[in-house]
Write a structure and sequence with these properties.
Blueprint lengths: L17 H24 L23 H16 L6 H19 L8 H18 L4 H18 L8 H24 L7 E3 L9 E4 L2 E4 L3 E6 L2 H8 L9 E7 L6 E7 L3 E6 H6 L2 E9 L4 H5 L3 H15 L18 H11 L9 E2 L3 H9 L6 E2 L11 E7 L2 H22 L11 H15 L13 H32 L5 H14 L2
Antiparallel strand pairs: 1-11, 2-3, 4-5, 4-8, 5-6, 6-7, 8-11, 9-10
Amino acid sequence: MGGNQFYPLQDSDLLVSPTNFFFMRKAHAVGAALLATVVVLAIPLPTPRPDSFIPGSTAFVWNQDSLWNALEGSFSATRSGRCGNQDLLESSLYDLRARIDTLFSRDLGAEDRFYRRLENNMFEAGAYAAACPGFVQQYVGDFFRIREGLKLRSQAWNFDEQTTRETLYRLLYGGRTAVEEVMLQQPDELTALFFGGEQRSRTPSAVVQGVTVHSGDLLVSRGGAPTSALIARGNDFPGNFSHVALAYVDSTTGNVSVVEAHIEGGVAVASAEEYLRDKKLRIMVLRLRADLPQLVSDPMLPHRAASLALQRAESGHTPYDFEMNYQDPEKLFCSEVASSVYGDLGVSLWTGISTISSPGLQSWLASFGVRYFETQEPSDLEYDPQLAVVAEWRDPATLREDRIDNAVIDAMLEGAEAGDQLDFPWYQLPLARAMKAVSWFTNLFGVVGFIPEGMSAAAALKNRAFSARQSLIAREVGVSAVRFEGDNGYAPPYWKLFEMAQDVVASNP
């Protein structure tokens, strides 16, 4: 019947030997144990509930949609007229400079209505300058003078008062935003590197990418990761920066070392080249004012602070502080690297401590391991009157990316306040916990593992899921922004990007 044979089943084939039976039972037992282990590893631990009450703290809200629309209307009308009549622009700039002169000549408290008039004038002039080529540098120079004057005036203000924080924020963050709107409408005039006022220092120095960096300078930057955008925006006064590092300059060799804390491996030391190689959307160099009493008596104090930070970093491993407890020296997040050593030498950075009072945001940050919601946020360092802005770098491409990321995070945080939760596929948890166990073992030998030291497996998965969603929304907003620019002939202002992000978030629950 061909090559196939049919063998009838014999009764003996149904019999199992004692040895086979033993191995079958053992295999079943092992399989059951593995299944039970997977089930147990898939059970998520409850996220600690944050304490949402912070006395005297409220999240800042602009709530000025009508003003933004009016500014866009002024910009569009001026642009359509090809700036043929520059009287409005010149008059607005004249008024702005007159008010800036007043800022330097009169000692006004933070609550004075003068600052709201200065703010409105600054926004109005920005709308006209954005529409008229040739005015970018002038407008940037006006903002630098406003910043310098505010730093001078705020030295006498009470930073425990909400009015002080709001006045500084409205003019410094608002002014920064206005300047960048002007830059993006005239990208050909955008100089990537801007220098602030001259701030003398007697500490060792070196030139890095055209900037003279002194030992003890603070490098404030914005990373390119979605979580960097969350750090920048995730506090009561949303900002543009997510990371702080401290520069050390060797007095003999002139080599620059950067001391910083990374989520992945804790406190580390990098060369200037390594620091710059890590993706950054903007960098700002801050320096202690030379007339501070502490520096008058000890001009080398910033170098001593940087030396202390370098010594601590090189003396042993310091893990990253996910809890953001700036008073715990055993673990450090990026801001603490600077504040801890300067604090030891008598300089208290962050004149105003950052707060995170929104319950939805607190819940999200608690998912990543944050436990302290009165802390030191990188963006708020810009408002410290003890510090002067030495230089700042950004370019059109990274500026666009930064603004889209910020708009997406702001829209996502609206969802957080409405009850959206950070989640991840439950079936990934067993593998993540196994990877966490491997990471714990490699950490014993000083090797960075799959999951950062101090971060739980669930937090790592939530981080990954959050980053994936933010990136997806940002790509869609980027497409909408290109379409808007094609239809209207100009880049969408920030409030338009935010509306686009709201639409995408609503359609991608």
